[in-house]
Amino acid sequence: MLPYVTSGELHARWHVYIPSSVIDVQLASVHLVDDTFPYHGLIFSLREGMAEVTSSEAGTTTALMLPIPRDRWVCAQMYVRIADIGGEIGGAIDGGPFSAITNIDTLPPFGFRNVHVGLFATSLATGPMEIWTDEVAVGTQPIPCD
What's the CA gap between 19 and 44, in Å, rounded? Predict the structure, then answer.
């Protein structure tokens, strides 16, 4: 759990293995979110074979798409600069340059409180699937890929 973070930055870094058999499925693997339904915040997911970093604040969804390799471990990173106005989300794969979306609302009503890790399938799942997640770290400073 996070201590109701309402300002500054949050960074997450983890390693993920997505088999090539997981195709055209919408699933989420890491969330930095508030603790009240509908759990607004920052979500790392897979959509149409790409990694997606999404901010779901203020009733809108802002997404950043990143290519993600399959059938090997990769280092995934995402961050949020928390603000009602002028917030920013970003993400990177394998320590590459961060891609970002700026000047958006990134502040959930009660601040960031939870970190969810795992396989959260949202749609299009047609049978059993797996992705592997390891070495999850969350902090207020950038966390490098090692």
Answer: 17
Q: What's the CATH code of the domain at 40?
A: 2.60.120.200
Q: Has residue 68 been placed in a domain?
A: yes
Q: Look at the pTM and tell me if it is higher than 0.70.
A: yes
Residue 86 domain boundaries = 8-139
> What are the φ and ψ backbone dihedral angles of 32, each rounded to 5 degrees?
-115, 105
Pick from 51, 13, 48: nearest CA to 140: 13
Question: Helix, strand or coil for residue 16?
Answer: strand
Partner residues linked to 134 by β-bridges: 15
Q: Take residue 89 and report the two structure tokens written for it.
A: 């989300």
Q: Letter for the amino acid at 131?
A: I
What Rg do the C-alpha atoms of the chain give, in angstroms?
A: 14
- Could you list the pLDDT tens digit for every one of the 146 residues in the chain? 778 889 999 999 999 888 887 665 566 677 788 888 877 888 887 777 777 888 887 555 667 788 888 899 999 999 999 998 889 988 889 988 788 888 888 888 888 988 888 776 655 556 667 788 899 999 999 999 98
Q: Which residues pair with 82 in a beta bridge?
A: 8
